[in-house]
Amino acid sequence: MVPLSLDLQFFAGEKTEKATPKKRQDARKKGQVAKSQDVNTAIVLLASFGVMSFLGGYMKDLIIGIYKISFEKFMLLPLTEANVQTVFVTMAVKAAYVLLPLMLAAMIGGIVANYLQVGVLFSAEAIQVKLNKINPISGFKRIFSVRAIVELLKSLLKIGLVGIVAFMVIYSRMDEILKLSQKSLGAALATLGDITLKVGLFGSLALLFIALLDYLYQRFDYEKSIRMSKQDIKDEYKNIEGDPLIKSKIKQRQREMAMQRMMQEVPHADVVITNPTHFAVAIKYDETKMDAPYVVAKGVDFIAQKIKYIAAENDISMIENRPLARALYDQTEIGEIIPEEFFKAIAEILAVVYKAKGRM
Q: pTM for the full model?
């Protein structure tokens, strides 16, 4: 039989828990995110063919212009260094006008595709050179892994689906293709261009459909890869709690919250006993809550001055009694009943305060 302790260790080591926010943040810093390259490819192709469908006439005129100037002007120029430079510069500019819309569309498509998947992310660790990537043993493991099989099936699916879509588009235009020989050169080229655009657009849409499925798979695989065991979560919690900086920030926040709650109780006090400069203790008597007067706030130096300031703003009586203020500060905590040896002194002070305010 397997000992119970070993059995518990086994289950504690299983990565069955969802990743914590810190784990996700650390993975993102390393460049580990759910991302599908097929989404990038599909959106870039869709953007490129979309631009070609909208700007096809403009690009056709530019290309025809390049042919015209080549045959009507450049063919007649003498072969000199200056003329060669002129030809290359002119042709490069005209080619840039043709290719610039396509390049801009591809660039914008790539940026949009990445932003939709991972948002704004730059990780230097993802581009670091790692020798284990060229390790032949690791390479064989990647080739014969489950991921490699999934990628193979995905590639076959892409080829099959895009091929079927392209065949259907071409088959639907088969009558026009068979009549190309009866058309003029310009009309035949226009028909072929239109068919090519349709094949590209519908093929891109089919690829986008596969890419969306692949993105869902990549998210599933990513979530699986960053799962944590119960022991990992405990270790992470210990590391966070053990960080001196984080602990100091937590304690500072707790002190600030306690101070804020204490200052909110000062306006409800019956009297503030002062030192008068160094100590201040706010006392309240409410027989519905406690059988004796209790401390609602206390402080020394700056905090004492703040307590007195709030008391003055809310018309709370302040009594100077140096030994009593010091003793109450040392021997009582906030929310506690005052010690029995101070009952008489506090009763006399409360009697004076009540009498001054017309209370019994």
A: 0.56
